[in-house]
TrEMBL record:
Keywords linked to the UniProt accession: ATP-binding, Nucleotide-binding, Transport
Signal peptide range: none
Classification via PANTHER family: ALIPHATIC SULFONATES IMPORT ATP-BINDING PROTEIN SSUB (PTHR42788:SF13), TAURINE IMPORT ATP-BINDING PROTEIN-RELATED (PTHR42788)
Iron-sulfur is among the record's keywords: no
Any Pfam family matching the protein: ABC_tran
Domain ABC transporter as annotated: residue spans: 3-230
Species of origin: Nonomuraea insulae
Listed name of the protein: ABC transporter ATP-binding protein
GO molecular function: ATP binding
Domain of life: Bacteria
Length: 251
């Protein structure tokens, strides 16, 4: 699986939000995108998800142009966007009804992914009975259950408290390792990007464009204690300086 963006641009009412964005994401990668306000992070993710068309350039997944939403791209928003009238199992299995799968395979996937996110005992619960972190786990399980080529995450932990957010970061990294999923994540949190990503892309604002790409040469196992190491702190500071510097230069 390869997701390739070439010279992608987006305009709204004559104002250019993204300009000449180029990216490549390979199978099993975990890419985090950061940038100041106005850099077009969420807009870029919407274009990749096919929720709106680009104004220029190309977006291809395995050589096929992206022209709209599709099951090969799973998307998780900050809010989780669960169906309140469906159970946890019903939410996770919702997208599977659109795929040519036997009923037994749908049940197997729902059970497996609920087990993977630690929520199998809550399969019959409604979203209102869950905590914020649990709802995001359901949203991630729902996206992964369709076994997409790439999982797109738009600030998935931005609305959570600090402790729950840290727990979810460790959880997400473990799920990524367990499933071998390809992940493209947008976040405003530089620390989160460095903790989770194998690579970090920095977007410069006004208009949004790729300003820097940094590899994250940290241990494969990402635990919270890693954030106190000199290597982590140095890389976080470097990314923060880049984000701040490009934001100031665009004013």
């Amino acid at each position: 699986m390869t997701l390739v963006l070439r010279e992608v641009a987006k305009e709204y009412a004559g104002s250019r939000v993204l300009d000449g964005v180029g990216l490549e994401v390979g199978r099993g990668d975990f890419l985090c995108i950061v940038g100041a306000s106005g850099s077009g992070k969420s807009t870029l993710l919407n274009l990749i998800a096919g929720l709106e068309p680009s104004s220029g350039g190309t977006i291809e997944l395995d050589g096929a142009p992206v022209r709209g939403p599709g099951p090969e791209r799973g998307l998780v928003f900050q809010s989780g966007a669960l169906f309140p009238f469906l159970t946890v199992a019903g939410n996770v299995g919702f997208g599977l009804r659109l795929l040519p799968l036997a009923a037994e395979e749908r049940r197997r996937r729902v059970e497996w992914y609920l087990s993977e996110v630690g929520l199998l005992p809550l399969a019959d619960a409604l979203p209102k009975e869950l905590s914020g972190g649990q709802r995001q786990r359901v949203a991630i399980a729902r996206a992964l259950a369709c076994e997409p080529s790439v999982l797109l995450l738009d600030e998935p932990f931005g609305a959570l408290d600090v402790q729950t957010k840290e727990d979810m970061q460790v959880f997400l990294h473990q799920v990524w390792q367990d499933t071998g999923a390809t992940v493209l994540m947008v976040t405003h949190d530089v620390e989160e990007a460095v903790l989770l990503g194998r690579r970090v892309i920095v977007l410069a604002p006004h208009p949004g464009r790729v300003a820097a790409e940094l590899p994250v040469p940290l241990p494969a196992r990402r635990e919270l204690a890693l954030k106190r190491t000199p290597e982590f702190l140095a890389l976080r500071a470097r990314v923060e300086d880049l984000v701040r510097g490009y934001a100031q230069s665009s004013v």
